[in-house]
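Entry type: protein chain
Record version: 2
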Amino acid sequence: MTRPRVFVTQPVARGALDRLRAVADVECHPDPLHILDRAALARAVREVHVLFCLVQDTVDAGVIAAGAALRVVATMTITPEQVDVAAATARGIPVTTIPPMVTEATADLAWALLLAVGRRVVEADGLVRANVFPGAQSCRLEGLGVSGRTLGLLGCGRVGQAVARRARGFGMRVLYADPRPLAPPEEAALGLVRVPLPVLLAEADYVSVHVPLGPATRHLVGAPELQRMKPTAYLINTSRGPVVDEAALAVALAAGRLAGAALDVFEHEPRVDPRLLALPNVVLTPHIGSAEVELRARMADVVVDNILAVLAGRRPPNCANPEVYGQGGHQ
C-alpha cells in the first residue's frame, strides 16, 4: 500500500516529525529562516496528501488548487487567517488548527518587550557591543520605570488577562478597554478597571494590544489613537500586525509624539516598515510569541494528532471547517 506523502513548510519538533514518519513519507523544507512564497508552496504540494504549514505560510486558493491529492491542510495556528478556508472547503479538504495554547508564552513575551523598550535594554546592549560604556549613572540610557506605572490593555481576553496577572507583581494600575466586560469578580481578582478606549490611551504609560484581527480591529490603533497617547508612553503589540496602522506609528515615533514601541507582529509580515527599522526607540521581534521549545513541541504534536486522524479516516479533533464532514463525522 502506498504511504501518504506529507510536506512540512519549516522544521518543527523532531518528536512530531518522527510520529509522522512512522506512517507517511515526510519532506520538510529545511531552512527555518526562509518563508516559502506562494509559488514555492504550490510546487511543493503538487503530489502530497498532507500540507503541514505554519502561521507565516500563505496557503491561498492557488496553492490549494495545485495540490490535486491534498487530503488535509494542517496548520499550527489557532485561527487560520493565512489559509483560504473557503477554497479548501469547496474541495472537501479539512483545515485543521490548534486550540488556544499559547496564552502564557505570549504574555511572557509581551512583558519582555515592555521591559525591553521601557528600560531601553536593546539600546544599552547595542552600545556595549559598540564598545561604548557610558557609566553606571550616565543619563544616556534613562528610560521609563515600570513598577507603579499605569498599564492599558487593549483587549482583555486570555492573553490580556495573563498580562494583567503579571502586572500585579509590578504594582501597576491596570486599565482595560474591551467591548465585552469581564465579570466584576474577575476584574477584582486581577485589579482591573474597565474604561473607554480614549481614557485608556490618555492615561496609560504602556499600552499593550491583545485583540484578535477582524474587520472591526484592523487599524484599531491609528493616527487618532496614537495622538491621544502620552508623548512619554510606549506601545506594545503581540496580537496581530494590522491592528496597528504601521505607517501612522512610524510617523508618530519619528515626530517624537510617542516615546517608543515594541512589536512582535507587523502589518505586512514578513516585511517591516523600513522607518521602524531605523528608529532606536523601537524593539522588534519576528513574531515569536509561541517560541518556547516545550510549547512548540506540544503544538506540533497537536498538528500531528489532526493529521493522523484524517489519514485514519476520522474527523480531526481541531477542524476549522467542520462542514466538510457529514453528520456522521465522515467526509
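Comment: The mean pLDDT is 96.
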